[in-house]
Amino acid sequence: MAETEAAVAAALADAIGETAPMGPPLTKSEEDTLRVAVQKCWVVDIGSAAANVTVVLGMQMTPEGKVKPGSLRLVSSQGGADSATKTAFQAARRAVLRCQKGGYNLPTEKYEHWREIEMTFNPEKMRTR
Fold first, then answer.
1. Is 100 within the bounds of a domain?
2. How many CA atoms, within 13 angstroms, populate the side-chain half-sphere of residue 27?
């Protein structure tokens, strides 16, 4: 089954001119490790308008597990005015950069799968922990 999925992904990548990452993708546990690491540094002011905004951050990573300088960007947002979105984006950005310290603990052999990351920061889900 995994070989079939890999073959289909490679065929689709060839059709659109991109190379599909080789090897197995990140496991759920590996994804959770990254999420938990970032979540520890994410501060949401529940009294602000930004507490109602969900943002998706995109970033490029180095093989050492650090964010490439200048690569953090807002991919999308939902639920607020521009000022609230900017505040939510900055809080998420600070969390990613603050927690990376020596680099996130990601498997180097799977770098092609995590060199480009998108993370969703949803304060509503954080409140229901």
1. yes
2. 5
On whether residue 83 sits in a domain, the answer given is: yes
The answer to whether 90 and 35 have CB atoms below 8 angstroms apart is no
pLDDT digits (tens, 9 = 90+) for 33-59: 999 999 999 998 888 999 999 999 999
Residue 34 covered by a domain: yes
* Residue 105's CATH number: 3.30.1150.10
Q: Tens digit of pLDDT for each residue in 53-95? A: 999 999 999 999 999 999 999 999 999 899 999 999 999 999 9
For 122, the domain range is: 26-127
Q: Which residues of 11-44 are buried (b: 16+ CB within 10 A; e: fewer)?
A: eeeeeeeeeebeeebbeeebeeebeebbbebbeb
How many Cα atoms sit within 13 Å of 44 on the Cβ side?
Answer: 23
Assessment of whether the complete model's pTM goes beyond 0.85: no
- The Cα–Cα gap between 98 and 94 comes to 6
In a domain, 10, yes or no: no
